[in-house]
Recover the amino acids of this structure.
């Protein structure tokens, strides 16, 4: 992958006001999640949300698949394949997120809802994990990162649409509670951590920028190889229902179309 060391601020998102607001929002979200974890409301809200069926199971399986870290990364790569600065920020966010998620999950090792509650209290959807490592939610972290990135990228171009995207990402995070995989505290904390990762990636990019040339053949080869690898990792995970299959099929089509449309430009 071609990396050119320059020092332009192509994203124009490092203003003090944006940085301070982002820090405050992310830290408040994490603090609320931690506080909720130590409150009885964490269990009460989970049970309350499972007292009735709000939407079809296949809907939640479709939505929750977009919070998979690999699938979420593929979507971001497809959307911003033509912008080297944004690609660099996306890649740095995921490079930070993978070790942070693994360390926190294994260090905290908080039991999942089905480890604590009787199954009769939950309307389980699909095959949510039964073992520990509940806090934070990895899906919510990916959704929070995507929300923060999209919010920044759309800030000057599509300011109204960014709020819709934020709500959709929040719905993806909420799906982890709806399928019975996580406590509400796991999701709130994970969503805030996802935003925090983007802030850290912004600082990394500001002081050590990667300027990727999307038209360079090496960059195209590198991105295609990464997408193929991640797509393989997405598909080898257990398939829990039609909704999840549709989500994986949609991102697979997106990857193929993205490669086919970008390759002629790369060759030129």
């Amino acid at each position: 992958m071609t990396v050119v060391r320059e020092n332009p601020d192509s994203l124009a998102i490092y203003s003090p006001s944006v940085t301070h607001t982002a820090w405050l929002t992310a830290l408040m979200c994490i603090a609320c999640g931690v506080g909720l974890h130590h409150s009885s409301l964490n269990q009460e809200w989970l049970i309350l949300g499972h007292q009735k069926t709000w939407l079809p199971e296949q809907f939640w399986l479709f939505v929750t698949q977009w919070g998979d870290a690999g699938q979420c990364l593929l979507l971001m790569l497809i959307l911003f394949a033509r912008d080297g600065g944004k690609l660099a920020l996306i890649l740095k966010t995921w490079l930070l997120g993978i070790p942070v998620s693994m360390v926190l999950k294994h260090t905290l090792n908080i039991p999942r809802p089905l480890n604590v509650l009787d199954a009769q209290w939950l309307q389980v959807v699909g095959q949510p994990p039964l073992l520990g490592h509940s806090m934070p939610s990895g899906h919510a972290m990916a959704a929070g990162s995507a929300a923060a990135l999209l919010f920044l990228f759309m800030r000057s171009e599509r300011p109204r649409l960014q709020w819709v995207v934020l709500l959709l990402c929040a719905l993806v995070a909420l799906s982890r509670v709806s399928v019975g995989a996580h406590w509400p505290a796991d999701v709130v904390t994970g969503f805030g951590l996802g935003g925090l990762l983007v802030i850290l990636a912004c600082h990394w990019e500001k002081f050590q920028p990667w300027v990727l040339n999307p038209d360079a053949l090496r960059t195209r080869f590198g991105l295609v190889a990464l997408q193929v690898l991640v797509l393989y990792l997405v598909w080898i995970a257990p398939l829990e229902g039609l909704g999840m299959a549709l989500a994986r099929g949609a991102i697979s089509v997106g990857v193929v179309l993205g490669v086919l449309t970008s390759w002629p430009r790369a060759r030129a």
Notes: The mean pLDDT is 87. The chain has eleven helices and two strands. The domain at 11-212 is CATH 1.20.144 (Vanadium-containing Chloroperoxidase; domain 1).
